[in-house]
Amino acid sequence: MTSLFRATLLQVGYGDDESLADRVDRVCAWIGSLPDTDLVILPELWAHGGFASGTWAAQAESIDGTTIQRLSRVASQKGIWLHGGSIIERAAADEDQGPDGRGLWNTSVLLDPAGAVQLTYRKIHRFGFGEGEPRLLEAGQEIAATDAVLRSRHTRLGLATCYDLRFPELFRQLTEASAEVLLVPAAWPLPRVEHWRLLGRARAVENQAWVLQCNTAGTHSGTTMGGHSQVIDPTGEVVAELGVDEGSLTVDLDLDLVAQTRHGFPVLADRRIRIGGGPSFTPETNAG
Ligand SMILES: NC(=O)CCC(=O)C(=O)O
């Protein structure tokens, strides 16, 4: 059994001149044209616009709405895992609308190779310092990790979104939930792109996990995106990285590198402070 799998990050670029429907068409065609790959990752809010907060409420969709239906179709046609980035999710009228009653979330959706929704993640840390996300959206309440089989090899995927990168305790909880590959879609602006690059490496080093960060390109709603999508291995090395323009990045990842890194330099076994309820936390391991 091989421990290798191939991941492709699509750094989608867009401006204000492309409609939601046109962008969904374009990105689905792009995915359809990709050569052999096992997992495709899209950026945060690539369809609804990462900073287009003025139109979020009008364009919000349910998880079974058009955007995810289209992605589901292309995932099943290709037989790939597809992290659809995130959408502005609208709850159905008879569902819980969240503590502030807004009924809107920034929700990531992971589709399996049959096109079924395997996992959703509602962004926990909302970006905007009182504006944008915290003013308009509900905060997610739950971490999200799931088992996945990639090329007949079992692994565990953990999800986080953009600004979440600044909160290491979330990533530690994903590690305590046994995640080995951390998938991070984003709409991260250019002026802080060095934070994006640095924080991704930090989350990989401290959790000894693969980190796959897929950012946005272009300028929309007056905000220029930083690009620099990157794949970081469990030792913190940048395996591959894009520039600022739209493009794709394909990398072969070795899942065995997670266990090799964790056994070879067993820093996680020295944790003394429990911050989450993850099932795999065993502080006694290094007690001697
Ligand atoms: N969309 C975001 O979460 C942006 C985060 C960001 O710009 C930052 O953390 O800096």
TrEMBL record:
Gene Ontology MF, one: hydrolase activity
UniProt superkingdom: Bacteria
InterPro entries (alphabetical): C-N_Hydrolase, C-N_Hydrolase_sf
Keyword Signal: no
CDD domains reported in the protein's UniProt record: nitrilase_5
UniProt cross-references to Pfam families, sorted A to Z: CN_hydrolase (PF00795)
UniProt keywords, alphabetically: Hydrolase
Start and end residues of each CN hydrolase domain: 5-255
Keyword Oxidoreductase belongs to the record: no
PANTHER family per the UniProt record, alphabetical: DEAMINATED GLUTATHIONE AMIDASE, NITRILASE-RELATED
Family designation: Belongs to the carbon-nitrogen hydrolase superfamily. NIT1/NIT2 family.
UniProt-recorded name of the protein: Hydrolase
